[in-house]
Amino acid sequence: MSEEVVAAKPSKVEFIKEASRQLRGTLAEEFRDPTSPLCDESEILIKNHGTYQQDDRDLRREKNADGTAKGKQYSFMVRSRIPGGKLTADQLLAELDLCDRFGNGTLRITTRQGLQLHGILKRELKQTIKTINDIQLTTLAACGDVNRNVMCCPAPFKNNPVRTEMQSLAQRLAEHFRPKTTAYFDLWLKDDTGNETNVAETSFAPVEEPIYGTHYLPRKFKIALALPEDNCVDVYTQDLGFLAAVENNRIVGYNALVGGGMGVTPSAKKTFPQLAVPMAFVTPNQAVAVAEAVVKVQRDNGNRSDRKLARLKYLIANWGLPKFKAEVEKYFGGTLPEPRPIEVTGVDDHMGWHEQGDGKWFLGINIENGRIKDEGDLRIKSGLRAILTKYKMPCRLTALQGLILCDINPNARIDIGRLLREFGMKQAHELTLLRRYAIACPAWPTCGLAVTESERALPGILDQMEQELAKLGLDREVISVHMTGCPNGCARPYTPDIGLVGKAAGEKYSVFLGGNVLGTRLAFLFKDMVPKDEITPSLVPVFSQFKSERQAGETFGDFCHRVGKDALDAHAL
Ligand code: SF4
């Protein structure tokens, strides 16, 4: 442990994990009562099982018959961990059925290529998790102090082995870091109670957790794999990124990038967003072992007393990269060469029709903010059900909250286009690039940490931005907008061209500029405490300055970065 950490008392969460009997705690007892909310300890522990206890803050305000406020009505968000976003049509159909059967009628594609159900009642949580496992998906380690969903470029090109190799490594990493505790099986998958609403009573026989130990990790841990020409997973925002080195259509190795992370706590001045930095070059055969060494160094040295400072980025900031790398080499058992000069040069949202390279096609469908639902004439849920039931194609989820339908026969393309139109779903060519590259976290009403709207506010903001950009003839620009309802940064808001971060009640936001769509640069704070309705007006002078002063080929983010905040401010006066 580092000097500062040895002296400091571990946080409450560390004691809860330690006493939990490998993530069991009192969950079994508490689920005997199908309605009462979980205690604080269980609320923390259950995250490791892939679910958060939440309350819908819109519902809090509703009134009972006697005029009193209804108050908190608890339900669960249930997140499926889907490495590389790969799933079958039947799995996606089953998740859609679950959202109707037990959830709030919507299913959400996350910014980490997972799926989230919202509004699951306590009495139906076990059945929900069990059904997810019955379809060969899992919620284990989708949240909590463990390695979370491993992200990977999902494009299903078959004409070269590079993406297939990366996707296979993503699967191996996901399996390698899966917690070994049997608590998940005992609690959610056993049917020995005869009562589907109760989780099972179980006797505890500890198993070895060779990577996580008794305390699991100090904090969440995130891994992603990307290609230099396609950083669609935002590899620099991860605790550990693998950026591929490709020669003659083969992956010869990866630059291991370490210490990225978006979360910031405004009240904790020592917190900051950080891009991952290249640590070493690793061969494909070394990647899993190096990942394990990185995770173990963080496990044994990360800050366990202050969770705000517990992510890997703070350990590296304390130690410096050379010391961190030397420690990783000790755990790995050998020296690692310096990283190669590999740069990210492109990004692709994988939307629209593409030949896969094997005579078939894939179709990327933009799902606004990842929310699969039926609303008015836009019936995404019904449309996807119709297409998936008819064609049963494999699917992939993108990090920009989109959906890729794979392995489509050329002769089905017209019919699928017809089905999309029938259900009001737009294809990529009918959307602006602004909308295609925009993502948002859920925030209100379900996220307990949200201070502002995000998902529900972004579409209206994009409407305004589209209008202003069109007036300036800038509507064909790729401008990425990431929005969150608090500074925790779940939608990676500190790297895109425009980052909108919920700052204070009353719908006030921090506006960040100067990142880029490639995800290779941190943005700077342009304006703070901007009311929601002022966000687009505050950007109009910047759009206009970009139009008149941009250099040849310069993107919006590059322009803002080049001229800087002062010049943008001066122009706005
Ligand atoms: Fe919740 Fe904040 Fe994450 Fe959004 S960024 S989902 S508001 S914690």
Mean pLDDT: 94
Percent of residues in β-strands: 15-25%
Sheet with most strands: 5 strands, antiparallel
The separation of the N and C termini measures 51 Å
Q: Which ligands, by name, code or SMILES, are bound?
A: iron/sulfur cluster
Quaternary organization: single chain
Key traits:
five-stranded antiparallel sheet, alpha+beta, Sulfite Reductase Hemoprotein, domain 1, 573 residues, binds iron/sulfur cluster, disordered N terminus, Sulfite Reductase Hemoprotein, domain 2
What can you tell me about this protein's structure?
- The chain has 573 residues and is α+β, with helices and mostly antiparallel strands.
- Among the domains are: 1-12 and 144-179 and 212-347, 2-Layer Sandwich (Sulfite Reductase Hemoprotein, domain 1); 352-426, Sulfite Reductase Hemoprotein, domain 2; 435-572, Sulfite Reductase Hemoprotein, domain 1, CATH 3.30.413.10.
- Helices cover 31% and strands 18% of the residues.
- A five-stranded antiparallel beta sheet has the order 1-2-5-4-13. Strands 3-16-17-12-11 form a five-stranded antiparallel beta sheet.
- The chain binds iron/sulfur cluster (SF4).
- Iron/sulfur cluster (SF4) binds next to loops.
Could you write a compact summary of the structure shown?
With 573 residues, the protein is of the alpha+beta class. Helices cover 31% and strands 18% of the residues.
List the helices and strands and how they pair.
Layout: H1 3-7, H2 12-18, H3 27-30, H4 40-45, E1 51-55, H5 57-60, E2 74-80, E3 86-87, H6 89-101, E4 107-109, E5 115-120, H7 125-134, E6 151-152, H8 161-176, H9 183-189, E7 223-226, E8 240-247, E9 250-258, E10 277-282, H10 287-301, H11 312-319, H12 321-332, E11 352-355, E12 361-365, E13 371-372, E14 374-375, E15 378-379, H13 380-391, E16 395-397, E17 403-408, H14 413-422, H15 433-436, E18 438-440, H16 458-471, E19 481-484, E20 498-504, E21 508-513, E22 524-531, H17 535-549, H18 556-572
Parallel strand pairs: 6-7, 7-8, 18-19, 19-20
Antiparallel strand pairs: 1-2, 2-5, 3-16, 4-5, 4-13, 8-9, 9-10, 11-12, 12-17, 14-15, 16-17, 20-21, 21-22
Helix pairs in contact: 6-13, 8-10, 10-12, 11-12, 13-14, 16-17, 17-18
